[in-house]
Amino acid sequence: MNRLDHIKLEHSKTLGRVLRLDDIETMGVSSQTLAEEAIAEGRWDLAADLVRYFHEEMRIMHHIMTTWLQDIQRYIVLKSGAMEAQAESASKGMMRTYWTYPFGVTECENSLKALAVNNDAEVLKWLERMRLAFLNVHDVLVAWVQDQLSYIAETWQEEAVLDTVLHTHQSIWGDRYAAWDNMTPWEKVALTVEGMRGGHFSGGQRRGDVIVEDQGDRFMVAFDPCGSGGVVRRGDPETGRHSYEITLHGTNQESHLWTWQKEGVHWYCAHCAIAMEWLPGRKRGYLLRPLDHTLDHNAPCPWYIYKEDRLIRGYHYPRTGLTKPIE
To answer: What is the domain partition of the chain in residue ranges?
Structure first.
């Protein structure tokens, strides 16, 4: 079977939009790479669909990162003594350009125009430029979150980091995963991979390559490295850029249930403990999407999507102060 035949760009009724619901053979493969393969095989319609979808993957994550940073700015202004209306106005003003600048739009249009006349070289050129248009901004936004959370920890103590993540939780993770309990396990995998593939540019080539395995009771989705916190910690494998230099308060100095009871967790990565385990475990009884975080910056980061909540293994729970529900 041709690898491209495993691609399934389908409309998800649960999400109300197109989602890549590929077979497992291609689920973790970069949309950019698959678009290039479609071009090489002369499958122009598929290539055009993948170009559009790749742009959408990146646009969605840009929206999420911009929302997060706007919420962080609002939190800082509020904590500094401003009223709610002042904080809202200030944060919107600070992030205005990131909302309005047309990242990747021209590059996407040029890719599609070149596809229409079967100009392979031009398509490939503009496809790569589209990736870079988002990637370079993405990495700045991720480092900015890390730095702003470090500032919050330094200024208002570490518990304020939890406070600010809860402050933004609904507008980012709450909204994105609102339909989680109505999704099939494979839809959950597809949504997870989408965010870390074209969204966060995971993998050694920063194209969005993700490891996906069926482990029986669960699916494992792993990143080597994760394109956000992993690159902050390890550095950029594509360019050789060093890991992001952190300040004294760039990692937690105290153990918390919302940092897996570990010290030395980068503040950017702490949101995974909060949004995937600590908070959903307290709100819904079951964890949302547990992961095996490690302080080894060179190790892959595996996340788990269980086929049923009741199958979530017991070892995931105690590190955030929880006990597995008794069926």
So the answer is: 7-320
